[in-house]
């Protein structure tokens, strides 16, 4: 693609933990990062994720979750891009290790039935509710890589409240994107809600699509990505789900 | 990646000199019957008094329309700066192969319609590269260059203007020229780029950015080609020269089923909206909106500092004012509130009953006719000094005013009184004039005459109020860009208000 020519900022470090997570998946020829890998990459660029552990496909949860606070969320991991809620590959509000194990076998059966590869499970602490946002990235065939912020959750497309920015975005661009959203008054505390901090969203947009952003630097490898939902609260922000689709997939 | 064309190097102004100010033009495709597009082009060159040399290329004729004809471009004794090719697609290759390296720019109008378009384009592009020639098109209509003394539209005025246009549709290029001209717009250049296989939108954009005769730039693009280069240029421009865009094909999703939410929510519309937001470009959805945005960019001085833009509405027609108020609200603009000092000043002006001295200010024709139409100057002075809104929108319903035929020179006086406060100082409100007609010949005639006077005073004119509000709203996006990107209003003002 023509824009790849001017893509790389010279001298940028390409060996951060996020770069390494991406490189491993790319070298292994994966069509996508599984959620565990994607979240490792996000933590590497300063985007918080819920506390959790990865379980190998056949391994029981019993004895592995002592460091986590219940209730738990259980999710299937796959190196194929999947819509977890569509195929029932996610279970919420599990009280203890035993409940996790029961859900585990159920999800494994569903994944098998859907013909999807199962690389393991992710068990995470449930995040308290907040404002559900989405962060994403994709390529325009002519204008190149762009990042997005919007109202998130499973109805993100229905709401259609999203603003895109062409990479690399500046801090002014990122702030303007967030401030252009229809959902902004809700973030700012409409109807007596506690206002949330917008800065972490702006920081995350820059960490993804800014001059040194992960997507901008690896736009030759990343086809598109969703971080949805991102729960934004007064006390911080966490990426609850994340999918990175690699170009090898296309 | 294609290798750069040798003629695509060097300073951009030099690169395009032969296109915009050709010293010689060859017309390929004029017939001995004198009826083809080529013949029309020759006639238009003669009519406009083109000062350079004109040659015709024809397989047999010695002379066409009084112009000496040659078999091929290579036979012409001198270098040819620009060739206008209206021959059918299958003949283009031979013409371009026989230039003897003497041709600088070839503009190819033809399209290949036999399904081998890509191969044909590759062939003619290769011929151009071999002889160090630049190719404009194919699938276009020509170039309009008042400085060069030539145009592709016989009816287009060659009045020199300060708007540079690139257009990937010949028909829209014609519309931009002719409808724009009736709106009072004139151009520093207009190039129809067609499929843009060699000269791309980005390269022409770069030319206009550098061109000292161009203050405002407009593009219609369907396939921007090297979009990243176009974006980089717009970023570096930082709003210095306003850019107005019309982009075709935004509704096509054009992509495979997206594997993500993001992919499902984004497309070229979102990408171009981001382009506009991040570069200060004004993205317009229609020809009229495009031309209106060009008017404002040309004639207004940006007011990036206006945080909460307020508007004064003033004119005859109560219902029109009410609808205008709604349109303002929908556009995110607010009516200016009148201070007591302004109310007192209005009250002190002597006038017959019937006027509502609020905002919107309803001024029936029976009031506007006072002082033979000069009363409005006093009202506008109070508005400017005591209300000082971001913009003042004056609307005149011409058929109603025309009924006051017994008042000497009412309409000329009215328009002169409004123009008295042209956009002279940066602090003056943006003044927009809406001239409403019933579409009768008489009212349309008045509108045309009043518009001609208004544009000499740098006042943008519109047919209807909502159109003016839409234009103002799109201009706000440009001003907002200047404000958020901290470009000084002064330096931007020099662009918005070129010295004539």
Record the SSE blueprint.
The complex is a heterodimer of chains A (250) and B (500).
Chain A lengths: L16 H11 L4 E2 L1 H10 L7 E4 L16 E6 L6 H4 L2 E5 L2 H17 L6 E6 L5 E10 L3 E8 L4 H4 L2 E5 L4 H9 L4 H4 L11 H11 L4 H4 L4 E12 L2 E4 L2 E5 L4
Antiparallel strand pairs in A: 1-11, 2-5, 3-4, 3-5, 6-7, 6-9, 7-8, 9-10, 9-11
Helix pairs in contact in A: 1-2, 6-8
Chain B lengths: L11 H4 L1 H4 L3 E5 L8 H11 L5 E5 L5 E2 L2 E4 L9 E6 L3 H9 L5 E6 L8 H14 L3 E3 L6 E2 L15 E8 L2 H13 L4 E6 L8 H10 L5 E6 L5 H11 L5 E5 L13 H5 L2 H12 L2 E3 L2 H13 L10 E6 L2 H13 L3 E2 L4 H8 L13 E2 L2 H4 L6 H13 L3 E7 H5 L7 H10 L10 E7 L4 H16 L4 E2 L2 H20 L4 H8 L4
Parallel strand pairs in B: 1-2, 1-5, 2-4, 5-6, 6-7, 9-10, 9-11, 11-12, 12-13, 14-15, 14-16, 14-17, 17-18, 18-19
Antiparallel strand pairs in B: 3-4, 8-10
Describe this protein's structure.
The complex is a heterodimer of chains A (250) and B (500). With 250 residues, chain A is an alpha+beta fold. Chain A folds into 2 domains: 52-125, Dna Ligase, domain 1 (2-Layer Sandwich); 129-249, D-amino Acid Aminotransferase, Chain A, domain 1 (2-Layer Sandwich). Chain A is 30% helix and 27% strand. Chain A is built from 9 helices and 11 strands. Chain A has helices at 17-27, 35-44, 84-87, 97-113, 156-159, 171-179, 184-187, 199-209, 214-217; strands spanning 32-33, 52-55, 72-77, 90-94, 120-125, 131-140, 144-151, 162-166, 222-233, 236-239, 242-246. In chain A, the strands form 2 sheets. In chain A, strands 1, 6, 7, 8, 9, 10 and 11 form a 7-stranded antiparallel β-sheet that branches. In chain A, a hairpin with a 2-residue loop joins strand 9 (222-233) and strand 10. The radius of gyration of chain A is 18 Å and the shape is globular. The model of chain A is unreliable at 1-12 (pLDDT under 50). Chain B is α/β, with parallel strands linked by helices and 500 residues long. In chain B, the strands form 3 sheets. In chain B, strands 3-4-2-1-5-6-7 form a 7-stranded mixed β-sheet, sandwiched between helices. In chain B, strands 8-10-9-11-12-13 form a 6-stranded mixed β-sheet, with helices on both faces. In chain B, helix 4 (89-97) links the parallel strand 5 and strand 6 (103-108). Chain B is elongated, with a radius of gyration of 26 Å. The A-B interface holds A 2-3, 5-6, 81, 134, 136-138, 140-144, 146, 148, 150, 156-157, 160, 162-166, 169-170, 172-173, 176-177, 180, 223-226, 228, 243, 245, 249 and B 1, 223-229, 231-232, 254-255, 258-268, 270-275, 277-278, 484-485.
């Amino acid at each position: 693609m023509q824009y790849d020519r001017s893509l790389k900022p010279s001298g940028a470090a390409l060996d951060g933990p996020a770069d390494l997570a991406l490189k491993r998946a790319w070298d292994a020829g994966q069509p996508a990062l599984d959620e565990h890998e994607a979240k490792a990459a996000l933590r590497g660029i300063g985007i918080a994720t819920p506390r959790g552990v990865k379980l190998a496909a056949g391994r029981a949860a019993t004895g592995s979750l002592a460091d986590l606070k219940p209730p738990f969320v259980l999710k299937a991991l796959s190196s194929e891009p999947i819509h977890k809620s569509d195929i029932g590959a996610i279970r919420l509000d599990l009280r203890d290790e035993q409940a996790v194990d029961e859900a585990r076998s159920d999800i494994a059966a569903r994944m098998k039935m859907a013909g999807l590869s199962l690389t393991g499970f992710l068990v995470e602490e449930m995040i308290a509710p907040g404002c559900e946002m989405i962060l994403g990235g994709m390529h325009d065939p002519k204008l190149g890589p762009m990042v997005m912020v919007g109202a998130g959750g499973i109805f993100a497309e229905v709401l259609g409240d999203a603003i895109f920015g062409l990479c690399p975005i500046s801090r002014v661009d990122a702030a303007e994107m967030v401030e252009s959203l229809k959902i902004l008054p809700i973030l700012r505390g409409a109807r007596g809600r506690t206002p949330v901090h917008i800065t972490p969203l702006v920081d995350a947009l820059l960490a993804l699509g800014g001059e040194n952003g992960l997507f901008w630097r690896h736009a030759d490898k990343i086809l598109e990505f969703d971080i949805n939902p991102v729960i934004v609260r007064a006390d911080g922000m966490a990426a609850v789900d994340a999918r990175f689709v690699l170009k090898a997939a296309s | 990646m294609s290798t750069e064309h040798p003629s695509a190097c060097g300073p951009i102004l030099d690169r395009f000199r032969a296109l915009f100010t050709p010293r010689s033009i060859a017309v390929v495709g004029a017939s001995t019957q004198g009826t083809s597009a080529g013949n029309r082009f020759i006639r238009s060159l003669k009519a406009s008094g083109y000062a350079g040399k004109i040659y015709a290329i024809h397989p047999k004729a010695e002379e066409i329309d009084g112009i000496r004809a040659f078999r091929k471009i290579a036979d012409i004794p001198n270098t040819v700066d620009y060739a206008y090719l209206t021959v059918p697609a299958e003949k283009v290759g031979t013409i371009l192969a026989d230039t003897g390296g003497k041709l600088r720019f070839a503009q190819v109008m033809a399209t290949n319609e036999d399904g081998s378009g890509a191969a044909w384009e590759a062939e003619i592009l290769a011929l151009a590269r071999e002889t160090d020639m630049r190719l404009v098109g194919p699938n276009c209509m020509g170039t309009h260059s008042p400085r060069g003394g030539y145009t592709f539209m016989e009816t287009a005025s060659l009045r020199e203007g300060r708007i540079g246009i690139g257009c990937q549709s010949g028909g829209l290029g014609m519309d931009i020229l002719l409808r724009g001209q009736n709106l009072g717009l004139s151009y520093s250049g207009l190039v129809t780029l067609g499929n843009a296989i060699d000269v791309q939108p980005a390269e022409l954009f770069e030319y206009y950015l550098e061109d000292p005769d161009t203050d405002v730039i407009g593009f219609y693009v369907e396939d921007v080609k090297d979009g990243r280069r176009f974006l980089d240029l717009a970023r570096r421009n930082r709003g210095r020269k306003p850019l107005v865009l019309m982009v075709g094909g935004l509704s096509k999703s054009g992509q495979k089923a997206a594997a993500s939410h993001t992919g499902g929510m984004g497309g070229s519309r979102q990408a171009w909206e981001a382009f506009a937001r991040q570069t200060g470009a004004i993205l317009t959805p229609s020809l009229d909106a495009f031309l209106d945005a060009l008017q404002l960019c040309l004639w207004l001085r940006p007011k990036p500092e206006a945080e909460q833009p307020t508007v004064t509405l003033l004119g005859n027609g109560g219902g029109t004012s009410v609808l205008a108020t709604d349109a303002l609200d929908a556009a995110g603009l607010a009516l200016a509130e009148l201070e007591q000092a302004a109310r007192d000043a209005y009250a002190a002006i002597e006038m017959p009953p019937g006027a509502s001295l609020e905002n919107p200010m309803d001024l029936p024709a029976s009031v506007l006719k006072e002082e033979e139409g000069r009363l409005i100057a006093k009202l506008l002075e109070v508005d400017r000094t005591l209300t000082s809104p971001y913009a003042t929108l004056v609307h005149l319903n011409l058929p109603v005013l025309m009924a006051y035929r017994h008042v000497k020179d009412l309409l000329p006086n009215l328009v002169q009184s409004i123009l008295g406060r042209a956009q002279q100082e940066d602090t003056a409100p943006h003044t927009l004039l809406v001239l409403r007609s019933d579409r009768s010949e008489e009212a349309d005639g008045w509108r045309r005459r009043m518009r001609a006077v208004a544009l000499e005073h740098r006042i943008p004119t519109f047919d209807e109020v909502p159109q003016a509000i839409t234009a103002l709203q799109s201009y706000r996006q440009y001003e907002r860009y200047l404000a958020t990107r901290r470009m000084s209003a002064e330096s931007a003002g020099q662009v918005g208000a070129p010295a004539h």
